[in-house]
Design a protein that fits this description.
Blueprint (H helix, E strand, L loop, with lengths): L14 H5 L22 E6 L14 H10 L5 E2 L6 E2 L4 E5 L5 E6 L13 H12 L44 E5 L2 E5 L7 H4 L10 H5 L1 H6 L7 E3 L8 E6 L13 E6 L3 H10 L4 E2 L10 H5 L3 E5 L2 E6 L10 H9 L3 H7 L6 E2 L23 H11 L7 E6 L5 H15 L3 E7 L1 H9 L7 E6 L10 H4 L17 H12 L3 H18 L2 E6 L1 E6 L3 E2 L15 E2 L2
Parallel strand pairs: 1-10, 15-16
Antiparallel strand pairs: 2-3, 4-5, 5-7, 6-7, 8-9, 9-10, 11-19, 12-19, 13-17, 13-18, 14-18, 20-21
Helix pairs in contact: 9-11, 15-16
Length: about 550
């Protein structure tokens, strides 16, 4: 999931957990901080402006994702202690004899917030809607491995790759079949042993009929099946207050009566409000607070590893950055260790892989062009004929604490390559992502990703595969290589951990050779909360577990 600032407490786990998936059990009126006015009280959480309306199929960034995950519960959930998928969600079981045709059995009694039942049709209708390319849903990519997905994609001209204007051949994937009200079958195009683990991600959430009746209105005031419900619309620039859903079908109903998601344009403002007691939870601290936050908040400060990566994306569609040697030169001109120490005070780890260290298959020295090598960087830049007389634009989203480290990268490019730079950090996150998808980046840009499910593929496919090109996915560098796609497919179809990892590592090697983005560093969760709340948990996927938060009465 595209990351603006979301943090996570992550425990390492590997593919074996995915392959051995098994059943494990069936805002105050004055805008202040936590309140004990109701049975469970209310509390507030900082978020940035979501990119899109609150529709799971089109929410693939962290700000909207935080809210959506409070409103919905998927087929499976993820255990925050070991990061493995568990059957505490809507699914009773997900089983297969051949890892290609999966039978999904749902638990009885789940309802949406409007009282309508959560059933097999709720999932199949939602998935077909997201996969159908004219609907332009950002999470469409995640259904690409279901049989018949390609028939839901609008035809393109083989010569230009542009849409022909003709509609797709089908509106429903042939691989989805209803068995009965609580059972459906999913046929994949090829075997994929890790598929059940992926189904806890946002893209796979069910949808009620009211969604299809009025999509626009639904995005403003969603109707989910999660522990909190929306009794009022989301207000852009302000946020939304969710209330506890008393008929929640899951095992962990919300502790609090309500949670207020409060939109801020600046992390500094949110942090100041936390210090002043008018905000309860933040999951990021400003760079200038890193040195003091632990002492100031004591046991209310949270710091743990997280499963993310920050990269410098390259606009491969721009002639200046079309040559892989240019991209490699920029990568080798960056001193990652100096930045992580000077700016982040060691709370970031220099990256030499496209994959997070918390995922099985990670190699700490996979990327040879992620090491500082000024001499080789200049040689490659000269060989590519790069025009050093023209400055480069360095893009990042505003208000999230990125300016200092992006400026440090610019200074290193100037010193090590003799290339001037211009900082382009004036867009809020909700404006920044659409510009990426529209090929609007005029130079290298800050790219953040936090895993959606604990499989190595999640750091590769959603960001760099051909099927993940916008608007159907998050491939905002617009990279496409059939050899890379094929290696990913082989990893997905593998029937052992070892074979899957070997194929994924082959895909990563191809990616490193082409370098459409330069891995920079891995982060840690750095969150804090007020004295008015306890049991604040930030899970493996960068989510504050709003249902777990307890308000101090």
């Amino acid at each position: 999931m595209r990351l603006s600032k979301r943090s996570a407490a992550l425990v390492a786990s590997g593919l074996s957990g995915a392959m051995l998936l098994s059943a494990c059990g069936g805002g105050d009126d004055d805008g202040g901080s936590a309140s004990g006015g109701g049975e469970g009280g209310s509390f507030s959480i900082y978020i940035g402006e979501p990119e899109n309306p609150l529709i799971p199929g089109n929410t693939n960034e962290t700000e909207g994702g935080q809210v959506v995950d409070s409103l919905w519960t998927g087929l499976v959930e993820y255990d925050p202690d070991n990061n493995e998928a568990v059957y505490t969600g809507v699914a009773e079981s997900i089983e297969s004899d051949d890892q290609q045709t999966w039978t999904v059995t749902l638990k009885d009694g789940w309802t949406f917030h409007d009282g309508s039942p959560v059933n097999a049709q709720s999932f199949i209708d939602a998935w077909n809607y997201v996969a159908y390319s004219p609907n332009a849903q950002g999470n469409s990519y995640f259904f690409a491995n279901i049989a018949g997905y390609e028939n839901l994609q609008a035809p393109t001209d083989p010569a230009t790759g542009e849409p022909t204007g003709e509609p797709p051949a089908a509106t429903e994937m042939s691989g989805l079949r209803i068995i009965d009200d609580l059972t459906f079958e999913v046929e994949l195009a090829t075997p994929y042993a890790q598929w059940p683990t992926t189904t806890g991600y946002t893209a796979f959430f069910p949808m009620p009929q009211v969604f299809f009746d009025d999509v626009e209105a639904f995005g403003e005031q969603p109707v989910g099946n999660g522990p909190f419900q929306a009794e009022e619309p989301f207000v852009p620039g302000q946020g939304i207050t969710l209330t506890r859903y008393e008929e929640y079908g899951g095992e962990r109903p919300a502790n609090a009566d309500a949670v207020e998601y409060r939109v801020y344009t600046e992390i500094n403002t949110a942090y100041t409000d936390l210090q002043g007691g008018s905000l309860d939870i933040v999951d990021q601290v400003p760079p200038d607070a890193i040195a003091s936050v632990a002492e100031e908040f004591g046991d209310r400060y949270i710091e743990n590893p997280r499963g993310d990566i920050t990269s410098l994306g390259f606009p491969t569609y721009d002639a200046r950055f079309a040559d892989p040697n240019v991209r490699k030169a920029f990568s080798m001109a960056i001193d990652r260790e100096a930045i992580t120490e000077a700016i982040f005070l060691g709370t970031r780890t220099p990256a030499a892989s496209f994959v997070s260290p918390v995922v099985n298959g990670y190699r700490e020295d996979a990327c040879d062009v992620c090491e500082l090598n000024v001499e080789e960087a200049n040689r490659l830049l000269d060989e590519a004929g790069f025009d050093r007389s023209q400055p480069v634009d360095l893009w990042f989203n505003a208000g999230a604490g990125h300016e200092e480290w992006m400026q440090a990268i610019g200074n290193q490019l100037r010193e090590n390559l003799g290339v001037e730079y211009q900082l382009r950090g004036d867009l809020q996150f909700a404006e920044y992502l659409p510009l990426q998808d529209a090929q609007g980046m005029t130079g290298p840009f800050r790219s953040g990703w936090i895993m959606d499910y604990p499989v190595m593929e999640n750091f590769l496919g959603p960001l760099y595969s051909t099927s993940a090109l916008p608007p159907g996915g998050s491939n905002s560098v617009f990279y496409s290589n059939p050899a890379f796609d094929q290696a990913l497919a082989e990893g997905n179809a593998a029937d052992t951990d070892e074979a899957a990892i070997e194929a994924y590592q082959t895909a990563e090697d191809i990616l490193i050779s082409d370098l459409p983005a330069a891995p920079l560093f891995y982060g840690v969760i750095q969150g804090a909360h007020s004295e008015d709340v306890t049991n604040v948990v930030i899970d493996a996927f960068g989510r504050i577990d709003a249902a777990a938060v307890e308000v101090v009465q």
